[in-house]
Amino acid sequence: MYHQDMTTQVGILGEPLNQKPRRSVFLESALDSAQGPHTTKVAPAPVKFINKPTEAFELNKQRGGVIYETLKPIRFLMRIMGIFPIANTDTELRVFKMTPHWLGYSVIIFLLIVGYIGYVKWDTVEIVRSQEGRFEEAVIDYLFTVYLLPIVINPIVWYEGKKLASVVTELIYFERIYNKVTKKKMTIFFGNKPLIITVVLPVISCLTMVVTHVTMAHFKIIQVVPYCYINTIIYLVGGFWFIQCDVVGRVATLIADDFQTALKHVGPSTQVADYRSLWMLLSKIIRDIGNASGYALTFICLYFFLIITLTIYGLLSQLQAGFSSKDVGLAVNAALATAILFFICNEAHYASNSVRVQFQKKLLLVELSWKKNEVQHEINMFLRATEMSPTDMSLVGFFDVNRNLFKSLLATMVTYLVVLLQFQISIPEDIEGDTNSTSVISATTRAPK
Predict the structure, then answer these.
(1) In whole numbers, what is the pLDDT of the chain averaged over residues?
(2) Are 140 and 127 in contact (CB under 8 A)?
(3) Of 187, 175, 376, 364, the residue nearest 278 (C-alpha)
(4) Is residue 260 part of a domain?
(5) Which residue among 66, 154, 169, 276 has the highest number of C-beta atoms inside a 10 angstrom radius?
């Protein structure tokens, strides 16, 4: 309950020192004398909020924000797989760092898989071969060695772990800045998309390796396990890149829409400066994402390029003899590798385009004639910042990830396929020579005594 005390204190010049009445709070049935016609009853606070006022205010807030919850499923799975030794070291500020215990766990998983790979290479995978022993079968034989090469991506991701942790922290910190600048929560609906990606990618990667071993080799389930693990971590790294780019693209679109709404109302120039600061932070984040995953993505792109080239060559070389069950595994591998490579390049292009082009469109469509000089100056500064600040997702300066990268990889792939097919055609099929040598040998064995 509270009782209003209407006593007013007056200063030396006669001005009132307290504009609001003082209130005294009493619990119900504590003091009977405090009850009166101007008192209001209030219920006691729950036990868990006694002496803990911050918990009462944090109860209705989302646990970690939209971006944190979006990245959470795939981060958890990558950590369990031993490729993402990064954890949240501050539950309140959401600061991510590489932790020694998760790094030790990742090293143990890596050593176990390397030992398993050594056993698989000792117990050699037996390829289903035809009687002719053609050249393309020797090329396909190399695929089972190439499938094991991506195990080196684990140390690469560990090497980039600090930068990856910094990027995740920056994304979550950016959401807090957005909430303060716009005075509202970030409203981006991802649905179950991150969880579906996290579940579907391991299932598809394992099924791909099982189908490949069933159709192209003498199937032994104990030999498939390292192939499934390595294929899964490759797909998860690509999925993590996809989700990061999707988050940046949607956030950029949301900020552009909020900025367009803010421009409809004549406000102070500081409002435009705040959105320019948001954009500068977002452009820095998109560059940091490319640099943080530079070596890992470079290796993945080259690996997919090699896999697609070899598998498509294996399919094309089977056209003369007709398709068989082995071609199913080749077709599945080629299709999925091409799809993952396309989504990596396309989503990076979408994020870069959303950060730069979306804001430039909003700024160029602004009618400046009826706005103040300060607002016009800030808008011109904003437009100049979008032109001068790079927003391309560059992999440590090697190349930019966009649709042009996918197009150039396909063009190079076609060139290599033409060279391989020409080499296959140039190999003579010396069937008559084999027949003549066989007749000579038989004639020698039948020589007269």
Answers:
(1) 77
(2) yes
(3) 175
(4) yes
(5) 154
Mapped onto helix, strand or coil, the DSSP state of residue 385 is helix
Confidence check: pLDDT of 367 > 90: no
Indicate the pTM of the whole model: 0.78
The answer on pLDDT for 78 being more than 60 is yes
Distance (Å, whole) CA 151 – CA 153: 5
Q: What is the mean pLDDT of residues 15-37?
A: 47
Residue found under tokens 């939209």: 66
Calpha distance 333→317 (Å, rounded) = 16
Position 240 in a domain: yes
241: how many CB neighbours lie within 10 A of its CB?
24
In a domain, 376, yes or no: yes
Q: Domain residues for 137? A: 67-173+190-426
Side-chain-facing half-sphere of 19: CA atoms under 13 Å? 0
At residue 312, does pLDDT exceed 70?
A: yes
Nearest 10 degrees: Cα torsion 176, 182, 184, 190: -70
Task: Say how many domains are in the chain.
Answer: 1
Cα–Cα distance, 206 to 384 (Å, whole number): 48
Amino acid letter, residue 10: V
Buried b (16+ CB within 10 A) or exposed e, 134-169: bebbebbeebbeebbebbebbebbbebbeebbbbbb
pLDDT at 60: 37
The Cα 388–Cα 405 span in angstroms is 23
